[in-house]
Amino acid sequence: IIVQTDDEGTKTFPRSELENIVEGERERDWWSMNLRFGLTLNRGNTEQITYDVLFNVRREDRLTLLDLNYNTSFGRTNGQQNVNRHLGEFMFQVFLGSRWWVTPAFGQLFNDRFQNIRFRATPAAGAGVHIIDAPNVAWDFQTGLGYQFLNYIEFDPADPANAGRSDPQSDVFIPLYTEWDFDITGDVDLTLSWLTNLVVTTIGNTNHTGKADLAVELTSVLDLNVAFLFLRTEEPAPPPDPADPPIEKNDYQLIVGITLELG
What we know:
Elements: E1 2-5, E2 9-12, E3 31-42, E4 48-60, E5 64-77, E6 80-95, E7 100-112, E8 117-121, E9 124-133, E10 137-152, E11 169-183, E12 188-199, E13 207-217, E14 222-233, E15 250-262
Antiparallel strand pairs: 1-2, 3-4, 3-15, 4-5, 5-6, 6-7, 7-8, 7-9, 8-10, 9-10, 10-11, 11-12, 12-13, 13-14, 14-15
């Protein structure tokens, strides 16, 4: 590897010592932002509108990676709200070499009115490894240990369905996270990820997040995205109103949107 520098001239290194390449030398070169907007409209026998917004901020230098995501979805059917969800995700990695890294902090912040979840926080720490790091395919795995805080919107301790629960609730969990990146062509990328928060102290609070994102580059700053989000809780809380039907374990969302890339 031959590197031309302003201060020290031309320097040569063995190819085996190259761990990664990060573009830029200034602080602002290491930051990037993405903003995705998706919208679904129905008119006629059913009047429905659902919109989804995803905002991502990333900082990546030679030794660290900071990744912050915020995803919100709102929807109404015939004038009645039926979707109200917020999902924040954070990850900070420190690289130890070309394959291994430690993660001092990662996790989720979650709110969903229709899952009766006012606030669920899952901060964790751990380590990860690049299982596959090929030119067109990457596969990563990460695990560790975390703390889960769960607070319901409505909670009736006298309800038999809440037997064994408390509000708020604190638990210990083991995060199991994996991600695949496929560079299908120069303009088409597919990213798949799966996170299981295995709650060892209250197994019913175990939750899962699955994602699939297909990005097609339209211009240097615009992408067309087709994204799929899967959320599952092994034992959901009872609904706020006992007259309402039980809360489903699984939530699915398909989004078609446009992403604006900045930086």
